[in-house]
Structure formats: structure tokens, C-alpha cells
Design goal:
CATH topology: Rossmann fold
Number of strands: 5
Strand order of the largest sheet: 1-4-5
Strand content: 5-15%
CATH architecture: 3-Layer(aba) Sandwich
Oligomer: single chain
Distance between the termini: 18 Å
Structural class: mainly alpha
Shape: globular
Helix content: 55-70%
CATH superfamily: 5'-nuclease
């Protein structure tokens, strides 16, 4: 499974259901986009270190940005940005899931539901 950034935000806020979802997953992966979004949300270097430590302790693999992911993400922007409000970050995360044949776990149904053949698990907080 590949986790969207919003799942980690729910975990950080102390949402037990989100934490359980992460804990029970045997395959834990994130896009480099999610990793960067988490680091960007940190208020200082200590919080950035805590994020890196959390990713490592939870045995979460960070998947790299590839040419194929970039190409697919650009197609998603062309196809879905105007109708769903999809932004580049969401397109990159969806493309990473598709290119790695992984199910995407997210609570952001609006941006991902329209993508044909994207395997999703929509989390309800």
C-alpha cells in the first residue's frame, strides 16, 4: 500500500483509526512527494528529524520520482485538474501508486476517485 500525505496528518493529530491503518499494513510505502510534503510541513529542524525518524521506525519505503511517474502525472493534470481540482502533488502521488501497482490509501476522494484503474482505499476519519 502507498499512503497519501493526509493519512500521516491524521496520525499526527492522534487519530487512532489512522494509526491502526498504518500499523496493520504489511507493506508501507510513500511517494517522494509525500515525504517532501511532510518535511515541508515541519516548523523546524527537530520536527524534520522526527519525521525522518518516524518514517524509518515504521519501516516505510520512499518511492522515487521517475520519468514514467512524471509523464503519467502530467497526463493526470491534463485529464483531471479542471474537473476535480487535482494539483501536481496529488497527480505525482497517484502516478507513483499506478506505476508501482500499489493501492493508494487516502481520505481525499475528490482528487483521486476519477482516476481510471487507480486502486484506492478511501479512509474515513
Amino acid at each position: 500500500m502507498i499512503f497519501d500525505t493526509d493519512i500521516f496528518i491524521w496520525v499526527e493529530r492522534g487519530h487512532k483509526k489512522a494509526a491502526d491503518l498504518l500499523e496493520k499494513s504489511s507493506v508501507r510505502k510513500i511517494s517522494i512527494q509525500t515525504f517532501m510534503e511532510l518535511l515541508q510541513g515541519a516548523r523546524n529542524k527537530v520536527e524534520q528529524k522526527n519525521i525522518r525518524d518516524f518514517i524509518k521506525q515504521c519501516n516505510i519505503s520512499v518511492l522515487p520520482f521517475t520519468e514514467n511517474i512524471g509523464h503519467r502525472a502530467a497526463i493526470y493534470i491534463e485529464e483531471y485538474a479542471m474537473s476535480t481540482g487535482m494539483r501536481a502533488g496529488d497527480a505525482i502521488i497517484a502516478a507513483t501508486a499506478m506505476e508501482n501497482d500499489l493501492e493508494l490509501i487516502t481520505s481525499n476522494k475528490k482528487h483521486y476517485a476519477a482516476i481510471v484503474n487507480l486502486k484506492t482505499h478511501f479512509f474515513k476519519p
